[in-house]
Amino acid sequence: MISFQQVEKHYGEFHVLKGINLSIKQGEVVVVVGPSGSGKSTLLRCINRLETITSGGLVVGESQVSDKKTDINKLRRDIGMVFQHFNLYPHKKVIDNITLAPMKVLGLTKKEAEETAMYYLEKVGIQDKARSYPSQLSGGQQQRVAIARGLAMKPKIMLFDEPTSALDPEMVGEVLDVMKALAHEGMTMVVVTHEMGFAREVADRVVFMDKGQIIEEAPPEEFFVNPREERARLFLNRVL
Ligand code: ADP
Ligand code: MG
Asked: Which family does this protein fall into (predicted)?
């Protein structure tokens, strides 16, 4: 589904991704962990070309992401992304936040889009908030709206960049539960998170990054119990 081959990425002089090789199969849940500044967000953002790679290959589905012939809008339709700061439209009601892209991009009628929106709002457990504005919701509820908005586009891949980092601790669980359910339904997911409990329980594979490189890649039962690399060990000692 996603394949990085010797991917390099520079921000000007700064070498942010170094020789990234990573393959993610359909239905796999990969959790990316590592210190701040190690390139996790950049790695994620390359997948839907929010960032362009400097060299190497990156294939998503059938398309080479950096190929000029690749229809970037189509690629992005298939990839949902959830950010740390929800990024909802503050002046639009919850339901209108969700119906916007399906109407505009997929060409759904308002009625179809609203039915879809309600289906996903129910799925994330907040159908009663459909007519509220984002500011009237808690952080956890806003993040669940953001997930519903992503799902309403029926993506093949969902990317999560620290989706619970901006939440009060008591709201983290409700968002992780939604993500867990999604994982169990077979969604292909790449998740950057500091929630090691989630990684341990839900990930098929944990990818540990440091200074722009993938240092270790292992199933969670291996990574958390017996990390091979010293840097991974030091990181786990700090965060667990
Ligand atoms: P992480 O998500 O692991 O914290 P990032 O991918 O956000 O790491 O960033 C990795 C490094 O790249 C950081 O040192 C950051 O300052 C730098 N960086 C990120 N985005 C840019 C940018 N647009 N321009 C220049 N440097 C950037
Ligand atoms: Mg980041």
From this structure: Belongs to the ABC transporter superfamily.
